[in-house]
Structure formats: C-alpha cells, structure tokens
Amino acid sequence: MDQLMEGDVFKAFTTYAAIVTLKMILMGPLTAYFRITRKSFCNEEDVSWKSGEEKKKFLKSHPDVERVRRCHLNDLENIIPFFFIGLLYALSGPELSSALLHFRIFTGARLFHSFAYILALPQPSRALSYFLGMLVTFSMAYSLLSKVFFL
Q1: Phi first, then psi: what are they for 39, rounded to 5°?
Q2: Which of 4, 16, 19, 127 would staple 103 via disulfide (CB 3.0–4.6 Å)?
Q3: Among 148, 150, 137, which Cα is nearest to 109's?
Q4: What is the three-state SS of 31-86?
C-alpha cells in the first residue's frame, strides 16, 4: 500500500482531487457573498438584526444566489463520485499518462462548468463540460471494473 501511495498516479490523483475539492468548498463562501450582496436570505435568524417588515424584504430568493447554490449542488453530485472512483482507479495501477489525462480533463471540465454556470454562459457550454466530467468518471469506472471485476 505504501508503494501505491508513493506512486506518481496516486500523487496526481491527490493533487487534482484537492483542486476540485477546494473549488467545491469555495462555493460556500461564494454563496454567502451573493446572499449578502443581493440581500437575499432564507432563514429568519440570518436577518435578526432587522425588524418586522424589514425582515420580509430580506427573506427572499434571488436568481444569482440560486444559480450559485445549484452550481454547488452540481459539484456535490459530480466531485464526490469522482473522488471515490478516482481513488479506486488510482490504486488499481493505471498508466500515468492515462491517469493524468482522466484527472486533468475532469478538473478542467469542473472548473469550466462552474464559470459557465455562475457567469451564465450560453448553452451548450455548461452541458458539454458537465457531460465531459461524467464521461471521465464513467471511463475510470469502466477501466477499474474491467481490471478487477470479481463476483
């Protein structure tokens, strides 16, 4: 196990997994930024410093806040499976060039997807980046299963 963890493929995986995880974590503060700048809060305790009728003005949905929240949810739906499949894939001993291609494409696709989502770039830019990331995860899963399939 120590040899696998010291290998270049595992190091590459940890690098790219850390990048997409940090990107996903940063979506929380970005949501908070949009909530504050758009004055759009969803919980009464978030506007406790306001009184009565003023609270109602702040307890509302805003399209920009919802856009960032949906982007964050999309990250959760895609980065978590990448983390688990990618870890198993990295531990299965793939060629470094193949692993780097998978990890780099996924990371690039997720970064572009976030920019496309938050900046509201025209479709199909966001959809293509989403499907590219999914394709990479499925490719790693297929490679993994074809190597170690055991029932």
Answers
A1: 50, 50
A2: 16
A3: 137
A4: HHHHHHHHCCECCHHHHCCCCHHHHHHHECCCHHHHHHHHHHHHHHHHHHHHHHHH
Distance between CA atoms of residues 112 and 14, nearest Å: 20
Rg (CA), the chain: 20
97 touches 8 (CB < 8 A): no
CA gap 77, 93 in Å, rounded: 26
Q: How many residues does the chain have?
A: 151
Q: Each residue of 82-113: pLDDT tens digit?
A: 999 999 999 998 999 999 999 999 999 999 99
Higher pLDDT pick, 66 / 114: 114
The DSSP bridge partners found for residue 59 are: 41
Residues 6 or more apart whose CB falls under 8 angstroms from that of 75 comprise 20, 23, 24, 27, 110, 114
pLDDT mean over 110-123 = 95
